[in-house]
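Action item from last meeting closed. Structure (463 res):
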């Protein structure tokens, strides 16, 4: 046998040292040690129940795994690239401690079903963690939305002033996005929750395994139905990376807005000093680095998704070593996303909101024009005519450096006899937002109702 490899039997020469490093995944998969040990415990117990291993072997294996887990947690075990991955590092340690019983653990199992079991268990936990972070951020946003139910800002389309909206309404838009993001993680989590163990290398095993028992012990909804699919499926990695990327993109859009709003040109908000940095040359600078980084990291999450789609697209069934790259991509996606969610939840409560600048911006740019057209429609003018009348009013105002609500009776009459000074007199950003008082509308009353709804839903999450 060449060297000390667990698979060294058919080899005559030792592995090249750089190949050993290049081949290893321990730097990435060491994080799954808890899941690897849990999987081995369930597998060993199943082997015992089925009479495949003796009770004494199982007892030794379970004791050995407990000891190894405690040692890893206490930092007493150094993993080594010579043993390639977390699976073989732990198995080798076990055998070192308990001898032959350790060597029997891998009966009716392959690293191919082992690795994907561990990865599913690990990612199942990460889904729970990321959902917690999403809910935490949602709570922060709902609280802010309530505070700003009456704060008026310009709503934009094409980044041009469109209609006034309430800042609370704007913030709640992100609460909606985040709730769909959480839904995507939950959906993917439910779909991937089947146990590959028992599929062995690819075809199943010659031993009388009880796959239902192993699956149940590990909290899966049942065993995977097809051994080839079980060991080669990486859909769950793709789905989760996609969920990370989409949530990352939502935070990136939000970041983009914060960055714009904090600029001297908008002056809508100021982010807390603790979340900004200065310039090494320009003493006046206070830069929104945190939202910029979140926006930047969304690129990495999208990259991870694209990388894995490309990796999987040409792989024949079943296991191929290319798949080892999946963990780096998906672990990184979760790490980055969780950090981004955390930064947002911690940064936003300290945000200063400049009501005056928001209000002034909302009131400029003829943002009440649609409401004037609506007033004409209520007086019996067909909408297309109303649109034209208001369009001409805006043109007149631009020409004469005037605002719509200040036009006098003779100006109105000159533009169109159906346009009255009473109609223009009622135009205000307050009236605009208050008038949109229906489900999904921007009115302060609706924002408060939506905050109540969200609070109930987010409380239910705790229960
Ligand atoms: N470290 C490997 C991975 O992450 C484990 C599976 C290896 N299987 C194999 N047949 N070489 O994919």
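Sequence:
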């Amino acid at each position: 046998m060449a060297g000390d490899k667990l698979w060294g039997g058919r080899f005559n020469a030792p592995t090249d040292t750089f190949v050993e490093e290049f081949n290893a995944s321990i730097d990435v998969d060491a994080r799954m040690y808890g899941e690897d040990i849990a999987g081995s415990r369930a597998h060993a117990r199943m082997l015992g129940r089925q009479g495949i291993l003796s009770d004494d072997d199982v007892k030794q294996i379970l004791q050995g795994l407990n000891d190894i887990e405690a040692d890893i947690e206490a930092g007493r075990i150094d993993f080594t690239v010579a043993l390639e991955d977390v699976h073989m590092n732990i198995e080798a340690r076990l055998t070192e401690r308990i001898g032959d019983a350790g060597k029997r653990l891998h009966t009716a199992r392959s690293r191919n079903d082992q690795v994907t079991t561990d990865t599913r268990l690990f990612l199942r936990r990460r889904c729970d963690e990321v959902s917690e972070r999403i809910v935490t951020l949602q709570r922060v946003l709902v609280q802010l939305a309530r505070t700003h139910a009456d704060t008026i800002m310009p709503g934009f389309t094409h980044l041009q002033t469109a209609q006034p909206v309430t800042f609370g309404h704007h913030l709640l838009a992100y609460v909606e996005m985040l709730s769909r993001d959480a839904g995507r993680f939950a959906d993917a989590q439910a779909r991937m929750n089947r146990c590959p163990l028992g599929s062995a290398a690819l075809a199943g095993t010659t031993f009388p395994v009880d796959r239902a028992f192993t699956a149940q012990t590990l909290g899966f909804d049942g065993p995977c139905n097809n051994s080839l699919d079980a060991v080669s499926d990486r859909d769950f990695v793709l789905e989760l990376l996609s969920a990370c990327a989409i949530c990352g993109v939502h935070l990136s859009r939000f970041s983009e807005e914060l960055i714009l709003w904090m600029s001297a040109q908008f002056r809508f908000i100021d982010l807390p000093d603790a979340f900004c940095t200065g310039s090494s040359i320009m003493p006046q600078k206070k830069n929104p680095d945190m939202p910029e980084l979140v926006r930047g990291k969304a690129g990495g999450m999208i990259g991870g998704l694209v990388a894995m789609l490309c990796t999987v697209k040409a792989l024949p069934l079943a296991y191929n070593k290319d798949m080892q790259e999946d963990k780096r991509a998906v672990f990184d996606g979760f790490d980055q996303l969780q950090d981004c969610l955390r930064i947002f939840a911690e940064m936003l409560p300290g945000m200063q909101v400049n009501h005056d600048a928001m209000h002034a911006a909302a009131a400029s740019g003829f943002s009440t024009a649609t409401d004037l057209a609506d007033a004409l429609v209520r007086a019996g003018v067909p909408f297309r005519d109303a649109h034209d009348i208001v369009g001409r009013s805006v043109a007149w105002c631009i020409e004469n450096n005037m605002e719509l609500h200040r036009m006098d009776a003779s100006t109105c009459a000159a533009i169109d006899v159906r346009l009255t000074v009473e109609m223009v007199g009622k135009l205000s950003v307050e009236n605009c937002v208050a008038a949109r008082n229906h489900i999904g509308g921007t009115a302060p009353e609706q924002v408060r109702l939506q905050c109540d709804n969200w609070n109930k839903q987010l409380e239910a999450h705790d229960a």
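Note appended to the action item: The chain has a mean pLDDT of 96.
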